[in-house]
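Example record

The entry below shows one chain as it appears in the dataset: sequence first, then structure tokens.
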Amino acid sequence: MTEDADEAVETFYSEERWQNWISRIEEEELDPENEDSARLLINLQDDAAIAVAKVLSAYEDGRIDEDRALEEIEDVREIVLTEVDFDDEDKTMLIDGVQTSLVPVFYAAEEYIVGGVVEGDLDEYVGAAADAEADEDLDAALGYIVQAGTRIIDGDQLDIELVENIEYGLVSEWVNGLDSLQSAIQDPEVVEED
């Protein structure tokens, strides 16, 4: 593939894009109870999920192969999961929450590319993840959430009631990320940074 043809494929995400979000968050007075602050964090999270959805779409359309798709997902993951250290501890915690939510998005995309969609019921995977978290088996919990993520990539819908009944913890944060992935797959429009 020539460099021109490769360029035509598209850039899915960039360090600069992430840094623009981070700079914006650094400048804003953030209050998670405030709707504008919450929206900014959701947009940041959705923007990364949209990048993942675009990689998956390019892969499914045959515009990129498995290796390139996995490479692109890894690139987005490395950019997004790089530790961010603000002077403001609350902001650092909020970004950490966004990063935590996005972890299963990356793993689910990789699992989908390498292994396809798992059999079974999306809600049952989420329930099993919540049970595993209650038993303090976080590896199993993440595994179930990743499997649920492959179902979402395939078009299954998260039951919002189920989500609201999950006790706050890692699983609820991960499900929040899957919700962003679901939105991104249904409507992969770019979130404007301003």
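Notes for this example: The chain has nine helices and no strands. The chain has one domain: 12-186.
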